[in-house]
């Protein structure tokens, strides 16, 4: 398996490239519009065929590169079920498994940051957690139908029940971290350690964070697969 972690600096977003080195089929998870040229150049240099673009959720802080990548490659654009994205090629439900060559990618419902969020268990040994679980943090829950109690339940029941040695690859990082493990986050993530469900809800409801800079353009664009109508 080929696995690459790619970074977009303005929004501190990670995009992941997954490929089967035998069949050369590939998927990109959470591509960013500003880095499409970089990503497609890498895909072509490695001789890969882009089969899927997968979204963990409808992003509020950046515009997805899926529309441009679909135009360039004809790949399918996949989003979590119940996401308000009419142009998606298909929707992924909890437990669904799609394959890139022989590599399984399993959807794990991780609602709470938004009301349609999915993590992806790749090859059974690493999980792409989107904004549900960050390294020593988690995504906010104060817009896009977010719900702190639901996020707590998602992390506790659907992520922290994975084996401790499962590698954690988040959707963002703001401190320079690249990878963690489920066991490490269960021990050291300050959002969850030492808080019960009620304490987590109270903490998240009082973060008082400013809105993402691109929220007004990113959400409507991402509901249209990342197509930017005024460009």
TrEMBL record:
This is MBL fold metallo-hydrolase. Belongs to the metallo-beta-lactamase superfamily. Glyoxalase II family. Residues 12-172 form the Metallo-beta-lactamase domain. InterPro entries: Metallo-B-lactamas, Mito_Persulfide_Diox, POD-like_MBL-fold, RibonucZ/Hydroxyglut_hydro. It holds the Pfam family Lactamase_B. GO terms for molecular function: hydrolase activity; metal ion binding; sulfur dioxygenase activity. Its cofactor is Fe(2+). SMART domains: Lactamase_B. Gene3D superfamilies: Ribonuclease Z/Hydroxyacylglutathione hydrolase-like (3.60.15.10). One of its GO terms (biological process) is hydrogen sulfide metabolic process. Keywords: Acetylation, Dioxygenase, Hydrolase, Iron, Metal-binding, Oxidoreductase, Transit peptide.
């Amino acid at each position: 398996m080929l696995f690459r972690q790619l970074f977009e600096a303005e929004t501190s977003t990670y995009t992941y490239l997954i490929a089967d080195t035998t069949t050369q089929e590939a998927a990109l998870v959470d591509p960013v519009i500003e880095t499409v040229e970089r990503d497609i150049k890498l895909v072509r240099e490695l001789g890969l065929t882009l089969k899927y673009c997968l979204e963990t959720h409808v992003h509020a802080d950046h515009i997805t590169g899926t529309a441009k990548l679909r135009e360039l490659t004809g790949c399918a654009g996949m989003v979590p079920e119940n996401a308000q994205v009419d142009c998606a090629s298909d929707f992924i439900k909890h437990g669904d498994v799609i394959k890139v060559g022989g590599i399984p990618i399993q959807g794990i419902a991780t609602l709470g940051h938004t009301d349609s969020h999915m993590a992806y268990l790749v090859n059974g040994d690493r999980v792409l957690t989107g904004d549900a679980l960050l390294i020593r943090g988690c995504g906010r829950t104060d817009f896009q139908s977010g719900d702190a109690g639901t996020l707590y339940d998602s992390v506790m029941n659907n992520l922290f029940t994975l084996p401790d040695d499962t590698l954690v690859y988040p959707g963002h990082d703001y401190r320079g971290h690249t990878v963690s493990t489920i066991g490490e986050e269960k021990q050291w993530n300050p959002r969850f350690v030492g808080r019960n469900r009620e304490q987590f809800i109270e903490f998240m409801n009082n973060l008082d964070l400013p809105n993402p800079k691109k929220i007004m353009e990113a959400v409507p664009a991402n509901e249209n697969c990342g197509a930017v109508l005024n460009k």
